[in-house]
Amino acid sequence: MDISYLQFLAGAMVISLTGVMAPGPLAAVTVGKGSGSPHAGVLIAVGHAIVEFPLMAAIFFGFGYIFSIPYVKPAIGIAGGAFLLFMAAGMFRSLRDGGVDAAADRRSPVAAGAVLSIANPYFLIWWATVGAAMVMQAAGFGVAGLVIFMVAHWLCDLGWSWFLSALSYRGGRFFGNNFQKAVFAVSGVALVGFGGKFLFDAVKSLL
């Protein structure tokens, strides 16, 4: 493989990891669901890929301009913020009812990964800017270069999400139910914060 492509791929993976490891609603939910299963992060990453792979393909084919259309980003922000507050309310209800059995949560981690990705305006903005630049750079190395980049980027998502869920699960097994309650409480507060910011930024952009 061309050394210039390897250099590009190494840099792209570092940039990808900085985006993946940044605190956000996906990480909060991964930690919450990880308290019930060490592999929840894998399923969340699969849901994330269901949104991310078509998005990368759309950027390659020139549809990234959609995010510049007026009211698209505010609409995404309002819908995303409302969904995050809904998820936070579910976590707080489970705490109020005295149980935090994440394994009994009927919401699919795959669905959570997909919905939280598409409802996150900052995820979409990242792909419309930084991500789009990397997609076009990768495309310069041919179809194989683009596909390898897409897979490598997703492996960063997979590795980090799996690590978070496994860490949460091990902590829950070691510290018991109180640890799980703390995880749900922190995750719920984080989702309220992110949801509130999504809504605030969306409304502010409309004024």
Q: Care to describe what's here?
A:
By secondary structure, the chain is an all-alpha fold. It has one domain (39-100, 110-206). Helices cover 81% and strands 0% of the residues. It contains 8 helices and no strands. The N and C termini lie far apart (51 Å).
Largest beta-sheet details: none
Mean pLDDT: 82
Class of secondary structure makeup: mainly alpha
Strand fraction band?
under 5%
The level of helicity is over 70%
Give the assembly state of these chains. single chain
The value of Rg in angstroms is 18 Å
Count of helical segments? Answer: 8
- Extract low-pLDDT stretches: none
In total, how many beta strands? Answer: 0
Provide the succession of SSEs: HHHHHHHH
Shape, per Cα inertia axes: flat
- Total discrete domains: 1
**Cα end-to-end separation:** 51 Å
What's the topology here?
Blueprint: H1 3-20, H2 25-34, H3 40-60, H4 72-96, H5 109-118, H6 121-139, H7 142-175, H8 177-206
Helix pairs in contact: 1-6, 1-7, 2-5, 2-7, 2-8, 3-5, 3-6, 3-7, 4-8, 6-7, 7-8
Identify the notable features of this structure and list them briefly:
207 residues, mainly alpha
In short:
The protein is an all-alpha fold. It has 8 helices and no strands.
